[in-house]
Design brief:
Length: about 300
């Protein structure tokens, strides 16, 4: 796993002009005070707190929609070794994962919040020097997850709309130079997580070190084989042939997913097919285990 910690990622995004949402970094959680958060976010009654380790770890604790006082106490009680990144709470309208290469940018977009256990099939925008290609899910309406301060997390039917596709296309065109410069500075292709809110528009959240090989996005990549066996449970027996992976594991149960991927790896499963995105957390974990991840199109 890469050493790209979230704090380092935030500093890098800011240096390259890609950080739109204000973020306050708390390196010494034990010294946190509500006054500090109130002073830094005087126009924001609710906050989001993400936690960060010294390496690129996922599924760390987080707090969403908390008052400055509640956020400060939560930060004080964090386990040793964690830092905190505090930002204004904004309702996420849609989520984007980017893969940035030297001459290629790919965006996967889903409505609402993109969680580890998501089974949403993303819309895919592929940007090359020659033009733009769009792939949309066969089922346009999907059950997406949204969060609001009054009701918390709720699910409803939603789709990736034309204005959302136009927004991310315009954002990539506007920031292409910054993305290319960041790719050159990092010395390798990278992933970028984005959230869209009505107040801040598209806001970069984090850098990912794991993206597929660039040829993965070519139109002539292998389609889902007819004999692929769907797996919807991490406890299901592993087939000998191609696997269509359709599991849903909450972030709190990440250890169960890690155990399942280890079982796939030990069984010698060379590749799996996903409908839930090649830039998703699930896809990242699979690639880190040495398993090839393919898109279940066709």
């Amino acid at each position: 796993m890469s050493g790209w910690a979230k704090v380092e990622a935030v500093n890098t995004l800011q240096a390259h002009g890609l950080l739109r949402l204000p973020v306050h970094v708390v390196r010494r959680p034990r010294r946190m005070s509500p006054r500090t958060l109130r002073d830094n976010f005087s126009q924001h009654p609710l906050l989001v707190v993400r936690t960060a380790a010294d390496s690129e770890e996922r599924n760390l604790p987080r707090l969403v929609g908390a008052t400055p006082a509640a956020a400060a106490q939560w930060i004080i009680d964090l386990a040793p070794g964690l830092s905190a990144l505090v930002q204004p709470y904004e309702q996420v309208l849609f989520s984007v994962e980017l893969a940035v290469y030297e001459s290629l940018v790919v965006a996967e977009i889903v409505p609402g919040i993109w969680e580890l256990d998501s089974r949403l099939t993303p819309a895919v925008l592929v940007f090359t020097d020659e033009g733009l290609e769009l792939t949309v899910p066969e089922t346009s309406l999907q059950t997406a997850r949204f969060h609001d301060p009054r009701h918390g997390t709720r699910q409803r039917s939603a789709r990736v709309n034309d204005w959302q596709l136009a927004t991310i296309a315009a954002w990539i065109r506007e920031h292409r130079r910054h993305l290319t410069a960041l790719c050159e500075d990092l010395g390798q292709p990278f992933g970028l997580k984005l959230h869209h809110s009505s107040r801040y528009g598209l806001s970069a959240q984090n850098i990912r070190s794991s993206v597929p090989e660039p040829e993965t996005w070519q139109q002539d990549t292998p389609a889902l084989p007819d004999n692929a066996v769907p797996l919807s449970s991490t406890d299901a027996p592993l087939p000998d042939g191609p696997v269509l992976l359709d599991v849903s594991v909450a972030r709190e149960e990440h250890a169960r997913l890690a155990s399942f991927i280890d079982r796939l790896h030990r069984a010698g499963t060379p590749e799996v097919y996903l409908r839930s995105g090649l830039l998703s957390h699930l896809a990242i974990n699979l690639r880190e285990a040495g398993i090839t991840v393919r898109n279940a199109h066709g």
